[in-house]
Amino acid sequence: MGFSPDFIRELKSLINIEDLIGEYVKLERAGSRLRALCPFHSEKTPSFYVNPDSGLFHCFGCKASGDVISFVERIENLDFNEAVKFLAEKYNIPIKYTSDGYDKTEKDAIFDVLQEAQNYYRQNLKKDSKPYKYLTERGILEETIEFLKLGFAPESGVINYLLKKGFDRDVIEKAGLTISGGIDRFRKRIMFPIFNLFDKVVGFGGRIIEKSENAPKYLNSPTTPVFEKKTLLYGLNFSKDYIRKRDFVILVEGYMDFASLFQNGVFEVAAALGTAFTERHAKLIRRFASKVYLSFDADQAGLKAAIRSFEILANEGLFVYAIDLPEGEDPDSFVRKFGKESFYILLEGANEIPIFLTKYFLNKEDFHSKSLREKLESIKLILETVSKIDDRVRQGYYVREIASMLDVPENNLLSELKKISDKNSFRTYVKQEEKKGKVLFSEEEKALLCFIAFNSQKKSEIDRELKGYIETLPCYPFYQKLMELDYEIIGHIAHELPEELKEILSSVDSVTSDLRVILKTIKRLSIKKQIENINEKLKTFADSLTDDEKLMLLNQKVQLQKDFHKL
Ligand SMILES: [Zn+2]
What ipTM score was computed for the predicted complex, to two decimals? Predict the structure, then answer.
């Protein structure tokens, strides 16, 4: 049994691809088509195109392409059947099957049981006075409780309730509501249902209301077929339209912060579910906004968190600002005390992370009284973040600002920044190479790379000598990279090199340091390789090569053999 072909055609024709994809990425018009930053790979300039006339999308960067169904399959991580159901439900199009009957998937069953569990928790909120009192004491209003559909999990009961409603024990467990079949996972907790972007309950966050030694303050659903913490942000289903409209999001730490800001009229907000930010979070945010506001504690831990979050978010092209809250306040307490207007004024004064760090070192750590070594360390830390900004003009702006704030010459900062950037680009390059698989070098190549790394003054001589030889060898990409770098840089990055290259560079004593010998062996190696290539060609294309072509290859081979013996 499957979907009727007519139904699939109808579905595709009824759904406007522009509207659908526009919910995930910011589309801009480009002639008859629409363009956006690709949601399927990281990029800084748009190569993802949507053609409303044909109903198709295509990315010139990662080659992703297809129609509305395949788009949903990829972006929501669904299979074909799930994607079709998802779209039918979203656009209220009745599903038609080739024959009647309807198989519920496991995911459908989990969604249903979670929805029913939410009903149960909501019914329980007012049965006991404690949870309700807990919320109202923290300033959460009745209307917010209704809006966020908050509930309460009593000591036990959800299992019996759900079993009576006809759900399988197995599905209840898979939905993350129970532990080892018989026990409620959430006990005596305020329940925050966590929704996906289409307002379906995918999991729960529970906050304890009575202090307990052996229970965590917050407890989330475990990973289930419909719930994964590192891909979700709490509240985004409520706030996404506000976020898109204003082009920024305030990321807060928990559900209570979210509830408080939202209730006080600060709608551009979402909360991480008790995990560090991931690349997936950054990609999710980028679908709605380009600016992110975060608040950090003004201490060493806060500093580290700021740097880490910044790297992940800036890597996806997001602008990251640190909200400068008064000592002892968090977003929740601040907005309750001073109101929404003051909060927005605070946002206007927020600094991008590099400036935030500079201020931190100036004000919290008394930069000017530090030793030279400590000063340099702080400066490096700041410049590391500047180097993550993929925009030379902005980088220049920050360097000028930081130089004047710290009272150090701008040029010194610029040359240090260049070193860091070179190092980063080499690091990126090495990572890409490693992804492609381990590169294997011959002993001769190792000797060459090693020699270059430690004798950078000989680089141009080597390059002149090896032209026409080096290009055919496996080490060529590494060779090129080494040629661009200073020896000093090699020292900086030694610990980040791939095993192969590290091994080469550390075996400096065991390889010859006679440049003439190295050059000769490399040339011979290259010639051998070229001869092998010719033999390979002659063998593989024996039938398709013309006599002239064969003769030409044989002549080349003879010439190479002569060259080899002349060396
Ligand atoms: Zn792409």
Answer: 0.98
